Amino acid sequence: MVVEQIPGLDLVGLCARTKNENEADASTAQIAPLWEKFSTEAAPKFTGVPQIYGVYTNYESDHSGLFDVYACSDLLSTDMSEDFKPIHVQSGKYLVFSAQGEMPQTVIDLWGEIWNYFSSPDCPHQRAYTTDFEHYLSPNEIRVAISIK
């Protein structure tokens, strides 16, 4: 992991409001269906070579509260449904974690690593809970940027 100053990003995608507790139960999970809808509705309409992101923002409190999650891209065509909303990723200081492997298990494992890192009593960084994001660099490579204070 590495601390980076990341410039802001303007993206467009689908949004759902959820919390981690809901994601542990398939009957209340929002994230997997959000990505399925994004893949079905957005992927066929991409123009150029898109950068794919998952964005987490509008945190109610900390990791236990509600937050907005976006499945999004930097390149979408103009004929997207009104369900697609713009999202701005704030520029700022982020702690960036990276992993390679089979998706989605690699994403799940990396988030486990992130939660363990921040729950450690001697963790040198504090989450800001402003905007965090996943950047899918390839079909088997991801970077997760966590906003820090």
Helix count, per DSSP? 3
Strand content: 35-45%
Largest sheet: 8 strands, antiparallel
Task: Give the neighbour order of strands across the main sheet.
Answer: 1-6-8-7-3-4-2-5
Structural class: alpha+beta
| Low-confidence blocks of residues | none
- Taking Cα atoms only, what radius of gyration do you get, to the nearest Å? 15 Å
Would you list the SSEs in sequence order as H and E?
EEHHEEEEHEE
What is the 3D form? globular
N- and C-termini, Cα separation: 16 Å
Count of distinct strands: 8
Q: Summarize this, please?
A:
With 149 residues, the protein is of the alpha+beta class. It has helices spanning 20-23, 31-41, 105-119, and strands at 2-6, 9-18, 52-57, 67-73, 85-89, 92-100, 131-138, 141-147.
Give an account of the 3D structure.
The chain has 149 residues and is of the alpha+beta class. Helices cover 20% and strands 38% of the residues. The chain is built from three helices and eight strands; from the N terminus they run E-E-H-H-E-E-E-E-H-E-E. It has helices at residues 20-23, 31-41, 105-119; strands at residues 2-6, 9-18, 52-57, 67-73, 85-89, 92-100, 131-138, 141-147. Strands 1-6-8-7-3-4-2-5 form an eight-stranded antiparallel β-sheet. The protein starts with a strand and ends with a strand. The relative contact order is 0.23.
